[in-house]
Amino acid sequence: MHISFEKFTLENGLRVLVHQDITTPMVAVNVIYDVGARDEVVTQTGFAHLFEHLMFGGSENIPSYDEPLQMAGGENNAYTTNDITNYYIQLPLQNLETAFWLESDRMKSLDFSEKSLEVQRKVVCEEFKEHYINKPYGDAWKHLRELAYQKHPYQWMTIGKELSHIEDAQLDDVKNFFFKHYRPVNAVLCVAGNVTTAQVKILAEKWFGDIPSGEKTERFLPLEPLQTEVRTKTVTANVPLDAVYKAWHIPGRMEEGYHAADLITEIMGNGFASRMFQRLVKEEQLFSNISCYHTGSLDPGLLVVEGKVVEGKTAEAANDAIESEMKLLLENGVTDLELEKAKNKIESMIEFEDISILNRANNLAFYELLGDAHQINFELDRYQQVTTASLLKTARKYLRYDNCNTLFYKKA
Amino acid sequence: MLNRKIAPAIHDAIEFDFLLPSIQKDHLENGIPLYWFNGGVQDVVEINWVFPAGLWFETKPALAHAVTGLLKNGTSTKSAQEINEALEFYGASLQINPGNDFATLTLHTLTKHLPNLLPIIYEILTDAVFPEEELQIHKQNSIQKLLVSMRKCDFVANQKVDALLFGEDHPYGRFTKQRSIEELKREDLIAFYKKYFSLDNAQIYISGKVGKNEIDILNNIFGKVSLCGDKVQPALFETITSTEKIQHITNDQNGVQGSIRLGRLFSNRHHKDYAPMVVLNTLFGGYFGSRLMSNIREEKGFTYGIYSSIAPYLNGGSLTIHTEVGKEVIEPALKEIKHEMHLLCNEPVDEEELLLVKNYLLGNLLGDIDGPFQILQRWRMLILNGLDENHFNKNVSIYKSISSKELQLLAQQYLNPDDYLEVVVV
Prior knowledge:
The structure holds 2 protein chains of 2 kinds. By secondary structure, chain A is α+β, with helices and mostly antiparallel strands. Chain A has helices at 47-54, 66-71, 96-108, 114-133, 140-148, 163-167, 171-181, 197-208, 258-269, 275-283, 315-332, 336-353, 357-370, 379-384, 388-398; strands at 6-9, 15-20, 26-33, 75-80, 85-92, 187-193, 231-237, 243-250, 287-294, 301-309, 404-411.
């Protein structure tokens, strides 16, 4: 379905999108910042994410972010990826201005409280433990990223390389980070709901208009060199089953081949009817589960196959079976029916995602950050344009044997 | 000059009107109850087929999971692969979940594909054969999944607290063991399927872009077969709460966090205290601004998150506090949780905080009943619990009007730490 919107830009460079939906009593307000874990330095990783936590610790004029929003019947959250940081609110339309007040004050200036930093360092350390240390295979992605990326900052996870980076974060670092990245010129605001552009314009100018523009982020990130040799790493840990993770470098979000790579993940390993689930889980029973997905990142990302190996089978045999499936793909490509199925899945996924105004607001802001929010309405076409021939070309270019990183995660 | 210290005026959500839109209550030709709601702009539908086939009806442990897990893995004319291919080709998703009381099939699809998908669902529901080989693969992979889960302290703690609260033989307290999976037999699956997934016991809910045409298709496929009228009679179980109140377990010698669960029994949705407790629970540990989160995360930094939640089932329920905290702060965290319980018992909540909780709860409710899927989901919950829109309206008025005095009395009744079981798993 076509998603309509209007756009204007404030004098300070803040881009504002308005998406009207007259059917809902709620309004979504989304602020996306052009900063993610890829903008960190190797000695201070996890900072973009830690910073996201600090954005809730009070701003210059508002001691608590959450309380006024809850009083206004609103709910909010945020997330950080390797590329961006996104903040979103949903609240009853009547209280829209509360969202403008809160978001603008923390864009204007945070409170930079020592207490908030001290507490959030601890909270993030517990988050680190809960998700990446205290659970089986929790550090697999740490190893996989380090294996696959030798130069590019995608070599660390958004949570950070190690706990100490978070524990050592200082208030001065926080201030510098804020004034460098959290500026209007590096942000996109999107409002979705029963609103008009005129209304939003008045509110945006009133609340965001006086915030100093800041400097547009220029990136000089190291390019990941073309991989020409297979890389393999074996990790041993206290886990109940062996597991195999394999990652190939694929094009970035805006590059040729991205959509074909996405469709390949559908055909190879997403769903019970996918190739690898059918052959490796059901027929050969080498894996108890298998999945295929990609990181969807702005710079060149990874296409990943991961699975747990059935007790009694070896990780090497399981890995060989994945290699064979990839070889088959590179030799024969996919059938028309397989491609049609993958496209049907994408079409359905997009349609369901668009039901929620929060998703629509988030996606519009994201595409605008990439350069042009209109692209949201061409996404399905990009998938439809992929042919079995162009898919095969993409597969042969990127899913080469020597472009692969294999992590064997074995039980001790 | 803009004064940023002054908040824009707000409209209190307690002043809003809440109207749960009415739905169509119908029957297919053969009498299967059909509930539907047309709304939204996307050409999508959600359909639920609900059966009394949850854990409550199991004759052997792990049976409901096995039956739902294998329901679409073969009929007399189609293999698992053919069924999955047929569903996935149209970009549809079919989830089959065994709950404590009901088992639910949920289909999400673009409306235009319904005519191609419904015959497959019908086939699954009337002609599943549970091939022996599929069962063997299910057993192998379920056991492996269980082995991984058993290494997680949160998984073990969740199992343990329910088992202590309800008793291991009670459907709400039962948990899956490797041996139960190993002992599953094909004939048990078939017997369970035939008895509980019979269309005699089905209810159908459909929402999204639906009109007469879609209802006709549904009726043609599900409404023509004659039913025999046999309704399932639920069994009765006795709840046996453990007398051993505290259990600290070491599951992983190298664990760096402990999973804390404090739990007590609570009622189902019919109890007079249920709606008032929704307000008290929200304030105590039900949202990000709660007492527990403010103290244990935002003040002390002991955890990434802490919540309390009410789990209402058909025949009872529980109230549980759950969090994962650093191993070295388990005792201080337990102390703070109990401190927050005492505080609510001993001191009335101030009016500002109470208004905030009410506005938050009601503002969210407005979002929760926005959109066709959400509206019918809300109705489905009411209908399956034997309730109607009066219950919804009554609850809304309680959320709006409850006083701090009432909340304190409730806290004294339901937030007394002495009534709670304590489970800690490292």
